[in-house]
Amino acid sequence: MNKTYTVALAGNPNVGKSTIFNALTGMHQHTGNWTGKTVDSAIGYFKTKTNNYRLVDLPGTYSLMPHSPEETVARDFVINEKPDAVIVVCDATTLCRNLTLVLQTIKVSQRVLVCVNLLDEADKKGIKIDLKLLSEKLGVRVVGTTARNKKSVKNLTLTLDEVLNQPPKTDFDFNTNEEAALLTVKTAEEICSTVVTYKTDNHNERDLKIDKIITSKIFAFPIMLALLCLVFWITISGANYPSDMLFSAFSQLEDWLSTLLLSLNCPEIIHNAIIFGVFRTVSFIVSVMLPPMAIFFPLFTLLEDLGFLPRIAFNLDKPFKNCGACGKQALTMCMGFGCNAAGVTGCRIIDSPRERLLAILTNAFVPCNGRFPTIIAIITMFLISGGISGSFLSAIILTAVITFGIILTFLATKLLSKTVLKGVPSNFILELPPYRRPQILKVIVRSIFDRTLFVLGRSLIVAAPAGLIIFIMSNAKINDITLLSYCADFLDPFARLLGLDGVILIAFILGFPANEIVIPIIIMAYMGTGVLEDGFSLSFMKNLFTQNGWTVKTAISMLIFTLCHWPCSTTVLTIKKETASVKWTLLSILLPTAFGVVLCMIFNFIYNLMF
Amino acid sequence: MEVFNLESLFDLNVGQKCHILSILVESPLKRRLIDIGLTPEGEVCCVGQSPLGDPKAYLIQGAVIALRKEICQNIIVGAVK
Predict the structure, then answer these.
(1) Distance from the B75 Cα atom to the nearest Cα atom in chain A, whole angstroms
(2) Domains in chain A, ordered, with CATH?
(3) B34 and A181 in contact by Cβ < 8 A?
(4) Confidence tier at B78 by pLDDT (50, 70, 90)
């Protein structure tokens, strides 16, 4: 019977630790190219000829003296759980700094195996490391790996078997004072000066050149904006075709399901509730939501793996600092463009709890993929005339709407940090990792599994019951008037103050599970059909909306309200999970809603004065 | 070697190198800086600055680290010997 050993995988952020983890365990887990991506420690299992292993992937940490929640997780595990061995993964290109953690870990662990990763990149940069000498100096086994090379990973497991045959160390020394830290760093420097040789002096010349352009005064902001627009353009235009395919596939499925239910003598009312209520809403959401996310997230992950995203945080740190927040919020904000729920989860990369809350509470101010179709449809229907100049103009208006969302994010962040989340900006220390060639296929697979399916799963949980509610409201009648109409009439006076009407407002409320269904609900309510339908042309929609009293004023009010209202149910659930607080969750709903209501009222007041 | 008068790390221009004299911040931040390789007597090179001038990026032990003005102004530096 093979013994099972617990082995921890430690290392600085961004050293390819998760790639090693995946190579060893075969379990898919995302590796981010920005600091502190892995937060909950992932666990995987693998076997060798002689041993069984339970491998715990710890969050990236610079030292065993913790500074953030993630680092505390790593420290506590190594010190308190006493794993049988710790593998410390090091980045060969920045070995010296990595050795600090190695030296600290050696002092407090039973057995240590050092894995010098990214040897290929070091090689490219003309950095040579004498692994044998390093092993002698440290007094522990050292293995060199290039995570993309299977053989080197095999070598790692063989060495791990050997390391576990050694008796465990029993005397631990954990001194956390400054002198000890300085001494450790000095020792690391000494070791490095003997084992590392540089062929050239300027080993990261290329990265510095790229950085010079990306962070330059002239190009930085245009590049970021252009890239953002490019990502949207690819996402939106690329999503149309697969969306249509999904729609027709689902309608085929709907027919079969309907025939099946009828052949089982299912009562008509239940048949309709299942087919037109639950099934159609769910299939609607999947068809509209899945394709853009399946395109946006791989693109985002690609930028992440390239190393571009930390530069965005670097460029935008100052404005965020002025709002009392952290530059990394720029990243979670960008992620919010894909999906606010994913953006909220991404806020874990922010160290300070106060700044993390700021980022979570303001994430919904940027429009997500679910709101883009609505925004674009309204712009196209009411704000521009057709033709080439029209499509150019619509791109400009769209960019303006996005920029407005970003400005609101800053305003809301500032407001929060002056009121309920008072405090001074914490110390911003961000590593700008080397640019890396992303592994494109892996990126696609990982981002679809990690982010897209995660978000989709969560939204479906709410979509099914919501579909039933929408069906009941639009079909249950009292005195021949549907519940939906009653609610719309009830909300109408208030909605008028916002420049909307009762139907639009009830559509936003019923669109809580997914913003994608707001416009379909409006169409359903105006037409009085009682079921969600797709496939209306924009000109048909424009006619229908105009007949129901829409003007340019309604369109702009609708744009403002689409940008600022309560986050969708998926996001709210995620905020609840991330903050573990009902109070903050409620605030995250109230804050954008208050912004939306006030902005709409101000807009309508001014509009009425002017016209 | 170019001679320049410097007081804090923030005064360093892109491309300039310096020698850390002392770090005038309290732990745990000081510990954090030491952990990432910023030590008294160590050498640091400024390799970039954000378009708005703050933060700046420094090459510290082979890695590029961005630090805000508030931290840099409390790190006293001298010219490279």
Answers:
(1) 14
(2) 3-203 (3.40.50.300), 220-424+439-610 (no CATH)
(3) yes
(4) confident
